[in-house]
Structures are given as C-alpha cells and as structure tokens.
Amino acid sequence: MMDGRPILPQGWHFVQNSLAPNGVDPIAPLARIDHPVRYFIIDYDCSMQFRPGETHLVEDFGGHDNDPPEFKMPWYDAFKVDVFTLGNVFDKGFYQACALSTIATTRQMTYFPRCMMG
Do 82 and 116 fall within a single domain? Predict the structure, then answer.
C-alpha cells in the first residue's frame, strides 16, 4: 500500500483517482522524486497479533502461500514465514512472470537450509 498524500496533497476521488475529491476537477500527481512517498506491506486477512515478549512460534496457522518449508514443521516462526512469502511474491509475481533473472535478495528471502528440516 502506498501513502499517496505527498504526491496528491489535495486528495483524490474515492472512485476515480484522476479527479479531485469533488469528483469533477482533474488532478495530476506531483513528481515522486521531489515528494517521496511511503510504502507499507499489509495483509490483514491472515494475520496474528503477538504481545510484547510473547513467542513468535505458531502451530499450523497456514496462509495463502503453501511453499514455505517451515509449514512442514510442527512449530515455526511467523515472521520468518512472512519474509519467505514476500520473497516468493517477488520471485513468482515479478521475476518469473516477467522472465527476469531472480535477484540475490529474493534468493536470500526464500532460502531455507536443509539442515533445519529436522
């Protein structure tokens, strides 16, 4: 998700994002190079909340991506699965779909040492 307020400070119409909030006046975004935006990674339909100090190990919670090798283990670190899943999204959704070479970051995000399989 992107916070568009820096490039569209006057706001935008909730249906037609090329119009002002009044739905009539056209708008154009400011240049991102001069008005940096912030990006947020969100997914609340399949999430867990942890209290401070609480273990991040979860049992058979699952998710939309069935590829994480951690799912073969009875307990796994939810944050590590999040990193793997995001790397998998980059790899499958962008690099493989666009026939681009996988960058080192996605390989690191999806790497799981065989010795961890137990």
Answer: yes
Q: What is the DSSP letter of 24?
A: S
Query: Which range marks the domain in which residue 6 is found?
Result: 1-40
Which pLDDT tens digit goes with each residue over 39-77?
887 765 677 788 899 988 888 766 667 788 787 788 888
Provide the number of structural domains found in the chain: 2
Does this model's pTM top 0.85? Answer: no
In a shared domain, residues 77 and 108 = yes
